[in-house]
Amino acid sequence: MRVSNPGENEIRKFEFSPNHGIIGVGEKLNLKPYLWKVYRSFFNKYPDFPTLFTFNSDDPEVATVDNDFNIIGNKAGTALITVTMNLFKNPEIGSFTIEVEDTFLGNVKDVYKVKDKGLVLTSKILSGKLYPNDKIKVLQRSDNKNNYNMTVGQLSLYGKVLEYAEKGDEPGVLLAGTEQMSTSDIERGAVITSPETKRVIVTRKVVGTIHITGKTAPITPGHKLQFFDGTIDVSAEFSEIFKEEEINPDKTYHLVTFTIAAPDKLVCWYGQVFKIREGGREVGTFTVSDADPMEVVF
User: Fold this and answer.
1) What share of the chain is helix, strand, coil (3-state, %, to 5)?
2) What is the pLDDT of residue 197?
3) Rounded to whole angstroms, what are the CA distances from 13 to 73, 210, 260?
């Protein structure tokens, strides 16, 4: 926190790091990890400390903040969230810029091929809408697989051709021009997005909030767990945690860093919640708050 020497009634200012994020319409991003970095000692010392924050959005139609510190994306646009901490006589104020996208995002659950037509992706639509003839990006989770720019040829569900697919649908997505491709060219677990989607990050270093419930022993740096998004597991190694040495069960920790070893990669976005698994058994959750983006090559 950077603070000037305040005079009587002067407002102090603190800085978020990072001080901006991107989410989709209907998605959430929790501000507590960013505030934890500034006010960790106060969170630990005062049980009622979270109640001393107030939030204001300069454009509530775009984004608002609920009582659990969640920024909620309402419609496409950009909003400035002003956060006031009221513990001291002089309030302390910081600001966080949130960009909200109304764009298509989905994942690949399976891949099969139709003779003389091409590859079909069995997918789940996570946000936005998808139409025939839309351009999409296919982002894969391994250096051993190519990323692709492709065009949707047709959408179908239970043998019925669809005019479009929307959030919650699980359509078959026929990819135009893929007659010569193999089902092994696109892997299960790949992420598909519209070209204008900016919030998706390909990374080997991710930071977030973890809560472990299914283990009894502490987790120390070097321990490997699996991030599961409902489709595939990605192995990740616990590398560090802000101002702590280990992760104990039944407690929430913010600013926890995991790394992913090549050739694997994690494809994620702010606020995404992964199930944490070990040996195929669910042992907790991890919510993304930051990541180091990699260059994506097509």
Assistant:
1) 5, 50, 45
2) 96
3) 25, 28, 36
Residue 124: both structure tokens together: 């789940």
Q: Which two tokens stand for residue 193?
A: 């997005």
**pLDDT above 90 (res 105):** yes
Long-range contacts of 219-225 (CB under 8 A, 24+ apart): 219/246, 219/247, 220/245, 220/246, 220/247, 225/258, 225/276, 225/277, 225/278, 225/283
Give per-residue pLDDT as tens, 254-296.
999 999 999 999 999 999 999 999 988 999 999 999 999 999 9
Averaged confidence pLDDT in the chain? 94
Residue 70 has pLDDT above 90, yes or no: yes
Query: Which of 16, 15, 13 lies closest to 290 in space, CA to CA?
Result: 16
Instruction: Indicate the burial class of 266 (C-beta count within 10 angstroms; 0-12, 13-18, 19 or more).
Output: buried
Average pLDDT over residues 196-215: 96
Sheet strands (E) in 170-272: 172-175, 191-193, 201-212, 224-228, 233-241, 252-259, 266-268
Task: Write the Ramachandran bin of 163: left for phi over 0, alpha for psi from -120 to 50, otherwise beta.
Answer: alpha
Question: Is the separation of the CB atoms in 82 and 104 below 8 Å?
Answer: no
Neighbours of 298 (CB within 10 A): 10
Three-state SS annotation for 131-198: CCCCEEEEECCECCCCCEEEEEEEEEECCEECCCEECCCCCEEEECCCCCCCHHHCCCCCEEECCCCC
| Cis preceding linkage at 18, omega within 30 | yes
**Residue 6 near residue 12, CB atoms below 8 Å:** yes
